[in-house]
Amino acid sequence: MLYLKTSMLTVCRRCFTDKLLWRRGLSTTQNLSRTNFSHQNILSHFPHAKKNAVFLSKFVYCPAAFTRGLFGGGRGSVHQQTLKDIAENIRECKFRRIVVMAGAGISTPSGIPDFRSPGSGLYDNLQQYNLPYAEAIFEINYFHHNPNPFFALAKELYPGNYRPNLTHYFIRLLHDKGQLLRMYTQNIDGLERMAGIPPEMLVEAHGTFATATCTVCRRDYQGEELRNDIMEGKIPKCPTCKGIVKPDIVFFGEELPQQFFSYLTDFPVADLLIVMGTSLEVEPFASLAGAVRGSVSRLLINRDLVGPFAWGSQRHNDVAELGDVVSGVKKLVELLGWKQELEALMNAGGDKASINKE
Ligand SMILES: [Zn+2]
């Protein structure tokens, strides 16, 4: 664990961020593009139990987190909430402003390659394009130099190639029941829209293929207008100015979409936060998990403990359902008694896969 020295005491990076930046009203996520943020790493969100820090963290405890643990912030005599409690509160409509945060882990069950897993990852499969380094595919300067690798990826990920799965339809069901406040997704595969979640209920933090913009004259296009070119392996050009038309995916070096800032009004009024299928490692998205009020229940459905759910910073009203994401959502759906409704929704959505099928 790395510690930052402040004038008064030594705290870990997470507490430094929480205590100083948030208190001064300087949200770590405000007005920063993804690129700026990568330079802000020292002030960014870091879980207490970070890889390579396990040994140290057994012996060294951040004083700020320790104090929080002593005074009600941690796991005292308060009832530790369970998945069953969360389900009960959803079913009884006690939660009516649910915010969902999701990442790649909800799309991998649809067959979409994980961007970051070595071997199976999308980056690894892009070696044929001689990228100087994998992330260059999402760098705007590299795109202006050579757009081909990005459009090869676009062809693979273009909406229509994959089907939404149970996790997407579960969120759709939350919306149908009027209990979804907003879904924040890091995914650019468009499966949320395909599952029928209306665009206004979505914050596609890293952009979308549903719309596109000319890189020269800034004219707007619908993603569908680019489909033929992209599928034929051609670079889509603007009929007006002949500039390259780029899908509205957020590249490193570009500002986040305006809707991202809905979090400023959504998170303070949320009554439940569901985080699923994300490593919470990409800023500024990751910091959002800490932006709900302290009294708000947070449910993590994920392979591992991540972000604020990791050791040392979880709250008594945090619930972690660890393991396969689809199985976790399925368990919640069964506790809710929504299995049949969800199945009907999936069938209507053209997805014949049964809820009982992985
Ligand atoms: Zn143009």
From TrEMBL:
Q: Which GO terms describe its molecular function?
A: histone deacetylase activity, NAD-dependent; metal ion binding; NAD+ binding
Q: Which UniProt keywords apply?
A: Metal-binding, NAD, Transferase, Zinc
Which positions does UniProt annotate for Zn(2+) binding? Answer: C214, C217, C238, C241
* Domain of life, source organism: Eukaryota
- GO CC list: nucleus
Which catalytic residues are annotated? H206 (proton acceptor)
Ranges for domain Deacetylase sirtuin-type: 76-339
Pfam families referenced in this protein's UniProt entry, alphabetically: SIR2
Protein name per the record: Deacetylase sirtuin-type domain-containing protein
